[in-house]
Design goal:
The chain is built from 17 helices and no strands. The protein has a domain at about 5-20 and about 105-285: Hypothetical protein af1432. The chain has helices spanning about 5-15, 20-35, 40-45, 50-65, 75-80, 85-100, 105-125, 130-140, 140-150, 150-165, 170-175, 180-190, 195-205, 215-230, 245-250, 255-275, 275-285. The longest helix is centred in the middle third of the chain and has 20 residues, at about 105-125. Bound molecules: fe (ii) ion (2 copies). One fe (ii) ion binds next to helix 12.
Length: about 280
């Protein structure tokens, strides 16, 4: 069975099932592009929605392991983290809400784990914007949620194939749809004007060699996705742990000493993510 890709793309871009999200994201995009808007202006737009700002602030303290000091306001967050990171966080809060309402807690845990590990690796490699890499990790699989919402029938078929033949979700999606959650993520990144530093890792986390604009960030998210699966933190939809892409691994130049340090920090970071308010909320504490 193959469904028409353009039709699906249009349907997904309409996103009837993500009602509150596009408005805020688009407002922020326009403000950021107009350039004469300050962090304070954008902060005000997000700040008007108190529930949203509270969520974004909590997410900063859950997903960014070891972030220096607590951020107390959206404007403060914008100054410290930049517009794109905050935009990615706004998007993430929406993804979180949908995952929770659909009982996809394990996929959220997988995403939060990937974000944490990606941040740890980025810091260890002295990447200038580790929080941006974390946000890419947080969002890397959000196409999965969108597929589940927009194409429920095909999603059932995909799940069946994974269970029956123990194949990866990426492979099953390709069989059924001829595109994957990574493609869907990329469509939405384009629609929402997310920068390549975020869209490339989302589009190519399963095929890091295809990234042209952000190969380093993509390699880091690719590695983090595999590590979080290998550890078994959360569940991404299938239990296969793929091989790390050789070129991506070599490009990162992680020495054995660095790897040891990454593993220690990663364990600390995952503990922090688990203790974070987001999980207390889920556990009903
Ligand atoms: Fe994925
Ligand atoms: Fe993943």
């Amino acid at each position: 069975m193959s469904i028409e890709k353009d039709k699906v793309r249009r349907k997904i871009e309409e996103l009837k099932n993500l009602p509150t999200l596009p408005g805020v994201i688009q407002k922020i995009s326009i403000m950021v592009e107009s350039r004469d808007k300050s962090a304070e202006d954008v902060g005000k737009v997000i700040g008007r929605d108190q529930v949203l700002s509270a969520k974004v602030l909590r997410l900063i303290n859950s997903a960014f392991y070891g972030f220096p000091g607590r951020i107390s306001s959206i404007t403060h967050g914008l100054v410290l983290l930049g517009f794109n990171v905050v935009k990615g966080l706004v998007l993430s809060t929406s993804v979180f809400d949908i995952m929770m309402s659909r009982g996809m807690v394990d996929l959220w845990r997988h995403s939060l784990g990937c974000a944490t590990i990606a941040g740890v690796i980025a810091k260890k490699l002295n990447h200038p914007e580790p929080e941006e890499v974390s946000v890419a990790g947080l969002l890397h699989d959000f196409g999965k949620v969108v597929l589940k919402l927009e194409l429920p029938k095909e999603s059932e078929d995909i799940e069946k194939r994974i269970q029956e033949r123990n194949i990866s979700m990426f492979e099953a999606e390709n069989e059924v749809l001829e595109f994957t959650h990574a493609t869907v993520g990329n469509w939405l990144c384009e629609k929402w004007n997310l920068p390549k530093n975020l869209s490339d890792p989302i589009a190519y986390h399963h095929q890091p060699h295809l990234s042209r604009s952000a190969p380093r960030q993509t390699a880091m998210v690719h590695l983090s996705d595999i590590l979080v699966k290998a550890i078994g933190f959360g569940f991404s939809g299938d239990s296969l742990v793929p091989m790390v892409d050789k070129r991506a691994w070599e490009s990162l130049r992680i020495t054995p000493e660095m790897l040891e340090e990454i593993i220690v920090d990663m364990e600390d970071g995952l503990e922090n993510a688990d203790d974070s308010i987001y999980f207390q909320e889920i556990k009903g504490e």
